[in-house]
Design goal:
The structure is a homodimer.
Chain A (H helix, E strand, L loop, with lengths): L23 E5 L3 E2 L5 E2 L2 E8 L9 E5 L26 E2 L4 E2 L4 E5 L14 E2 L4 E2 L9 H14 L5 E7 L1 H12 L6 E5 L7 H15 L16 H14 L3 H7 L4 E3 L5 H4 L25 E3 H14 L4 H13 L8 H5 L5 E7 L7 H13 L4 E6 L13 H11 L1
Parallel strand pairs in A: 5-8, 5-11, 6-7, 11-12, 12-15, 15-16
Antiparallel strand pairs in A: 1-4, 2-3, 4-8, 9-10, 13-14
Helix pairs in contact in A: 1-2, 3-4, 3-8, 4-7
Chain lengths: ~400, ~400
């Protein structure tokens, strides 16, 4: 059945690597009407592909990324890269998403900041960055903007759409929006509607950004802006991607004395541009509340710090808002929403994921079944929280490999 | 057995109110050596009492408050008070903590900001607020500073110590520190050691404060300071006090359009002193990411806003640090830590509490039992999260009433 069955196969026991890859840009010069009614005069999507489109043009697998992800999901950009793409463990020759068999694609979402059109892009009407003049975007806007791109590449059908978290939202939206185009959906660690708690966490992150003087109404220089607010937002969000048990196993209560003044506020050298903390330097002794620090604290600060060097604060506002807005059922039922779906689907929940808990994933599969669709639900036991979908998991690999065949 | 058995009883079906109360100050002029080794030349504890100490001086029940609580746990301060003390539903004539029977006491913790000595208090050495020169405090420091106060009142034994969350930590510490003094312990929604996840959330809140330019090394005017950072810290913490299910039930995804520019950043009138957001005003339209707002967002911003009007940011740093430091077992076992305990105990966990989950509460009771102590564990079904211990609960009332008799 699989059109790529005649392609060479790597031995499963020794999966290879995608290797060196380079991104490309899809540029649409046609206007794009967002769900909000606002119109972009055109847009760019930065993307990567791995493997080759077959003659029938139907062996394509679309990967959809999560909030802080991008188009670079496998391979390396240069031989000196320390880290490969974010889903490199899943994608490659002989891996579950087998680039010998499939033509794998991934694009940075619209509203993003890694090369696709977003608030940091130049507004042709002003010659300056859009900032908050960029239209609000939805998960459906992400999907529709990618459809135009796939058409331009000559893809006639998607063998599968695969995503976790916000990527899973896109995968479900794909199956509803383009039913004849999508044959399989793998959605993991996701939800059919963002919960009040999810919105609440996103809102705290947004307020940290909006209330940072550096935000300046969304008008800030590319390397500047609300760096403190964005770091705070990321630190908090990062906790929601992990789990109590996982953090206890990894960090526990390991701590060490702080000898430099207020070192716990300025431990990361790159944080030196952060305001506020400098006022403590030179006080001579660590303040009473900060004579030691826990390893988990250092780790979190590092997460916040590295995020602000790669992410745009306005994009963070826009993309979290797209997530908040996501509600497939709307005023109706989820079964009704899934009525057009033709794809078969694999929905995967992770026991320790408390951001998009197993029940929310199971509810998706149940609604698909009630709507008369082919759907399976798998629940994997992990203590790694929401991020489980990104991590080494032979169980997950077997599920995905089997489902894609 | 109960020394207060001869006191008049209100009918249980019609519990009365404590009524008008006024706080008092205990002032110790003796030096107080903190666990850190740092010495306070003296300290003040602001407290309230309800009911009367009996002739045997052993009908006292000490209430210990949580992170954002204070000494005002029952009654009202004036007839125009809209809200009574924070545990008024539990404490009063004929209520589970029956002020006809018991002499109920509660003090603001050391390091706090509601009248007890803390970073906002005047440092006699400088004539200015301590700020970060205040010694770091621990849960044990809170307990030891309160012991001196109880002695000054002539209390010879505690019929019970009762607390939830950080109050539960103090209650457990009381039983270890003063075994002959404490007859009963009720600890709810608490833990014997702060987990890595708990430390992580506290650290995000602290960083939001420390990185706010208004923090200024801890040196700020009483009504000023890092108001934005403190509001962000509180908004985030508030989510951890609730639950996914509870928030969905209370707020769901209810939303409304935003018509005023960037209203979602400045919805609370009192937030007008917040920096950053003002830059959006006058932009003419709501930005693309903010054309509507969810009710949960408005609610959270209100929580942040009202907190900064009643809490000191430096105290927030100190008290969260005391919580992080809390680890009864330390390098040993929890059974060993509980070895001195003479009190019998009731430990209560709440199913939807994910900040101090049921298992962490059950582990306390199990360790007490393994150490040969009398201890009971009760787990109450709620969907209200960590804050369940503060809320109306006939089940909890029955447990507490029965245990205290």
């Amino acid at each position: 059945m699989n059109d790529a069955d005649d392609l060479p196969l790597s031995p499963v026991s020794e999966p290879g690597e995608v290797g060196l890859v380079a991104p490309s840009d899809f540029v649409s010069k046609e206007p794009f009407v967002c769900d909000s009614g606002q119109v972009l005069p055109g847009y760019t999507l930065r993307y990567e592909t791995y493997g080759r489109l077959n003659a029938a043009r139907d062996n394509a697998i679309l990967i959809c990324h999560a909030l802080s992800g991008d188009h670079h999901c496998a391979g390396i950009h240069s031989l000196s890269d320390r880290k490969p793409g974010w889903w490199n463990n899943l994608i490659g020759p002989g891996k579950p998403v087998d680039t010998h068999r499939y033509f794998v694609l991934c694009a940075n979402v619209i509203g993003g900041c890694q090369g696709s059109s977003g608030p940091a892009s130049i507004n042709p009407a002003t010659g300056r960055a859009y900032g908050i003049a960029f239209p609000g975007v939805t998960i459906r806007d992400m999907v529709r903007s990618q459809y135009r791109w796939l058409q331009s590449l000559g893809v006639t059908a998607l063998h599968a759409v695969i995503g976790g978290s916000m990527g899973g939202m896109q995968a479900l939206q794909w199956a509803i929006e383009y039913p004849g185009f999508v044959r399989r959906v793998v959605a993991m660690a996701t939800t059919a509607r963002e919960s009040a708690q999810g919105i609440a966490f996103n809102e705290v992150g947004r307020q940290a950004i909006l209330q940072d003087p550096g935000w300046n109404g969304g008008d800030y220089p590319r390397q500047g802006g609300p760096r403190v607010g964005l770091a705070i937002a990321r630190m908090m969000a990062h906790i929601t991607y992990l789990s109590d048990a996982g953090l206890d196993r990894k960090f526990g209560r390991r701590r060490r004395a702080v000898t430099t003044p207020a070192a716990n506020a300025t431990a990361e050298p790159a944080a030196s541009d952060a305001t506020g903390a400098s006022a403590v330097e030179g006080a001579g002794t660590a303040p009473g509340f900060a004579s030691f620090e826990f390893e988990i604290e250092r780790y979190l600060r590092h997460q916040g710090q590295s995020f602000i060097n790669r992410f745009d604060a306005n994009s963070y506002l826009y993309i979290t808002r797209a997530i908040d807005s996501f509600d497939l059922a709307g005023e109706g039922s989820l079964e009704q929403a899934f009525a057009p779906v033709q794809a078969e689907s694999l929905i995967v929940g992770f026991t320790s994921d408390w951001l998009f808990p197993p029940e929310q994933n199971r509810d998706i599969a149940l609604a698909l079944l009630r709507a008369g669709k082919r759907s399976s639900y798998a629940e994997l036991n992990t203590d790694l929280g929401h991020d489980s979908f990104l991590l080494e998991s032979p169980q997950l690999y077997d599920l995905v490999r089997g489902f894609l065949r």
